[in-house]
Each structure stands twice: as structure tokens, then as C-alpha cells.
Amino acid sequence: MIRDAAPADVEQLLRLIRELAEFERALDAVEATEEDLREALFCSDSKVFALVAEEAGAVVGMAIYFLSFSTWTGRHGLYLEDLFVVPEHRSRGVGRELVTALAVRAVQLGCSRVEWAVLDWNEAAISFYEALGAQAMGDWTTFRLSGPSLAALGGRPDS
Amino acid sequence: MIRDAAPADVEQLLRLIRELAEFERALDAVEATEEDLREALFCSDSKVFALVAEEAGAVVGMAIYFLSFSTWTGRHGLYLEDLFVVPEHRSRGVGRELVTALAVRAVQLGCSRVEWAVLDWNEAAISFYEALGAQAMGDWTTFRLSGPSLAALGGRPDS
Questions:
Q1: In this structure, is the dihedral angle defined by the CA atoms of residues B40, B44, B45 and B48, taken in order, positive or negative?
Q2: What are the domain boundaries of chain A?
Q3: Each residue of B6-38: pLDDT tens digit?
Q4: Residue B68: which of A82, A19, A96 has the closest Cα?
Q5: CB distance A106–B64 less than 8 Å?
Q6: Which residue of A has its CA nearest to B27?
Q7: CB contact under 8 A, A47 and B47
Q8: CA atoms of A81 and A116, how far apart (whole Å)
Q9: CB–CB of A51/A87 below 8 Å?
């Protein structure tokens, strides 16, 4: 069953985030706390959302997403920040159900696209996404300003 | 002068969006109308925002952005969808001022990162961003579901 995440899912969502980061060889990079997720996902003016796949009362998969915007189409899109299905529940269509639920939501919201980023060595994910009809945007590279570089350019806030 | 865009800027913003798309060899892809931009940027619950660079009453540059989210840091980021400075006003620091203003905003909002995508052949942009301290996320590829593929997976909305 795919449904919107609820505040009671936060502990399990963080567990899945940590499992995904471990798979991506970046577990050390996870600083997020349950409090961070609760605030971001369930505040009154939330800008980030989560779908969960539930089986027998347990969260076995998740899709965390936010709204993007395309200046070309003049319409919003959905950006899939994290997609994860716990290993014991793979190969049973849960991932496909999560992406399909997100695509349905995108169409309902009038969005022009759903996008996400994949690690180049994650061949299983790439095959899965291509089978869904997704296209690699191979001629674009993402740049990031973070940590000391962001602090140097953005300074420290006054308040 | 860098300031938040106002509804009266919409015509000039669309002109800049079209100029950027032309530079990116994709002018045909611009379907956005002034009405689309006005609604997206200035509705009461806007999810996309714009900074403009103004000189002598004319908009000579823009940065269009929205809020992203990092599950690793548990914090929002800013995603720079479009950065553009009109050719006649380049090499005078306008682009740097726009990105700096965005970095300041990111720090003020407690964001962990500012990200954007660059076309691989746009060497001038890549040099500019690297000089600002940005890092290429070279091991990630963006995938996109749009057009017929999105419609096939997401179906048609009931309402």
C-alpha cells in the first residue's frame, strides 16, 4: 500500500534514509535527525513531502520529493530526492509502485516532469528507471555550493 | 542593484528566459507564458522565486530558484533553475552578484546547499561557477520522466 507519510513514520523514514546513504557509501553524511524530518515534512507550510510503501504495518519503502519549476514549460515539476525500498522487499514492484504514485501525483498537479539524480555506478537503478521510460539528461552536470564555499560566498546571517 | 522580482518584471523575465533558452539551443522548448510566470512567482503560496539585477530601470539579469531538500542534512537547499545576464551587461560582476545574493539568502534560511545544472559545453559558465567555489557533482546523472513517458506512467488526472 502506498500512502502519504504521517508523523508517526518519521523514525522509520530516518532509518531508510540512513540505509540508502549507507548503500551510497555516505552514511557519515547523514546529519538529519527525527526532529529535522518532522519539522520539514509536517510543518504547516511544508515544502517537502513523502510517500511510503507499507506492508503489514511496516514502512518498507519511501519516496521523498519536493516541487521543482521549469521556466521552459512555466509549470512545476516534482523532484524525487530519495527513493528507497528495503532489500528484503525488492523485486516485488514496490519501487515501481512508488514512482508510479509520484507520476500520478505529478499529472494531477499539472507538473511537466519528474526528475531525480542517480549515482553513475548504480546500474540496477539506471536499468529500473530506463524501464519506466525515464531519460538520462547526460549533457547536464549538477554543481553544488555547500560547506565552506557557501559560507564564504553567503556570509553569516545577521539574525 | 539586486532585488526580489515584482509582478511588473514578468514581461522582462520571460524575455530573459527566452534568451537563455536560445543560447541553450532550445528556444522551441519555451512554452511558458507571462500568465504562467505571474501565477507561479506571485501567487499567495508561491513555490518558486526570482531575484533580478536592475540597471537604469531595466532588468539585465535574473536568478530563478526554488527550495530543494537534503535528506542527508535534514535541511532545505536552494536550487537555481535559471541564471542569466544579458550579453551587453556581462563581465561586470552582475552574475556574481546574483549568485552571491542567492548564497546570502541560503545562509539566512539555514540552507545546506545551493545547486544548479550546467550544460557540459558551456565552458564559460563552468569556469565562472568553479571560481565561485562550486563543485561539479560528476558522479550523478539526472533522469527525467516527462511528455509521453510521464503521461503513460501517471495516467490522466480524473479532475
A1: positive
A2: 2-116
A3: 999 999 999 999 999 999 888 899 999 999 999
A4: A82
A5: no
A6: A72
A7: yes
A8: 6
A9: no
Question: In this predicted model, what pLDDT tens digit does every residue of A82-141 receive, in sequence order?
Answer: 999 999 999 999 999 999 999 999 999 999 999 999 999 999 999 999 999 999 999 999
Instruction: With CB atoms and an 8 Å threshold, state whether B150 touches A69.
Output: no
Which residue ranges of chain B lie beneath pLDDT 70?
A: 156-159
As a CATH number, domain B2-116 is 3.40.630.30
Mapped onto helix, strand or coil, the DSSP state of residue A44 is coil
Q: Which residues contact B87 (CB under 8 A, 6 or more apart)?
A: none
Ordered DSSP codes for A19-37: HHHHHTT-GGG----HHHH
Q: What is the pLDDT of residues A17-35, one digit of tens each?
A: 999 999 988 889 999 999 9
Question: Which letter does DSSP use for residue A92 in this model?
Answer: S
Taking CB atoms and an 8 Å limit, are A145 and B114 in contact across chains?
Answer: yes
Chain B residue numbers touching A129 (CB-CB < 8 A): 143
CA distance linking residue A89 with residue A140, whole number of Å: 33
Q: Based on the residue annotation, tell me whether A65 is a catalytic residue of this protein.
A: no
pLDDT at A156 over 90: no
> Which residue among A31, A72, A151 places its CB closest to the CB of B30?
A72
**Which residue(s) pair with A115 in the sheet?**
A79, B144
